Amino acid sequence: MKPTIPLNTLQRWMQSVIEHPGTNDEAWHSEQAVQQLPFDTAYGAVLPSSTLTPVERIAIYRRMFFLRMTESMTIDYPAVKWFFGEEEFDRIVTEEYVQKYPSRSYTLNHLGRHFPEFFRESSIAEKEFLADLATLELSITNNLEAEEKPLITQQQIASVRADQWGSVRLIPIAAIELLELNHNACEFLDAVNEETEVPTPVRKRTYVVVYRNSFRSYWEALSAQQFVLLSSLVSGKQFGDAIVRLAEQFPGTEEQLQNDLFYWFNEWIAKGLFSDLTVT
Known about the structure:
The protein has a domain at about 155-280: Outer Surface Protein A, domain 3 (Alpha-Beta Complex), CATH 3.90.930. The protein is built from 14 helices and five strands. It has helices spanning about 5-20, 25-30, 30-35, 40-45, 55-75, 80-85, 85-100, 115-120, 125-145, 155-160, 185-195, 225-235, 240-245, 255-270; strands spanning about 170, 175-185, 205-215, 215-220, 275-280. The strands form two sheets. A three-stranded antiparallel β-sheet has the order 2-3-4, sandwiched between helices. The longest helix is centred in the N-terminal third of the chain and has 23 residues, at about 55-75.
């Protein structure tokens, strides 16, 4: 009569085997698996089918486990995958990334949240570029989960008197994030998505806004001046203070500043970056 194996022991053994990144044989003989059940005991506990051995039956779960991991990461990081190619990307995810940052949730939605820091900590030659690229793609993924809010209306804007604009605070939508990157990650991602010639990764100070409108995500590069103004407004500064901050480092004339302000503000309103305003 076979000894009864506690269910929780069998579950822990199966988890250790399924999550092991090596071969089937290595997984069954791994230290984590053997700590739960010796090989012979485990082999006897898993019944064979008419066509599959116990090892082959568990191998199905192992393949599906890692396939789900790579599928999830592919959805969140298509440009990073393009950089490495499918085979190397899958290897990095299964053999390196999920071993260092295993999933801690019932869902795989957050599996890739540590990808930027994974690259920063790695020894990969282009790790700084990849960290920027992963940061951008992670922002786009996170953007999809933010609350969709009603947008500011032209009537609200028109209701503000000219002498009140200095004390206006614009309320940004929830689905917006501003990024400062050190490489051409935005150009790289655009080229991958548009299937055009992909640029060589280079150091390039880049400012990006990631936002969502009507349940669709967008990302756009900003000039340094646009970034200064938009980051001030998004952080809750009064409109007048945001303009003063911009004017202190604006390279053009006062007329150019006024023209740019008018154009940028109307463009950001049209793109749906703000949901409300207050006058203080």
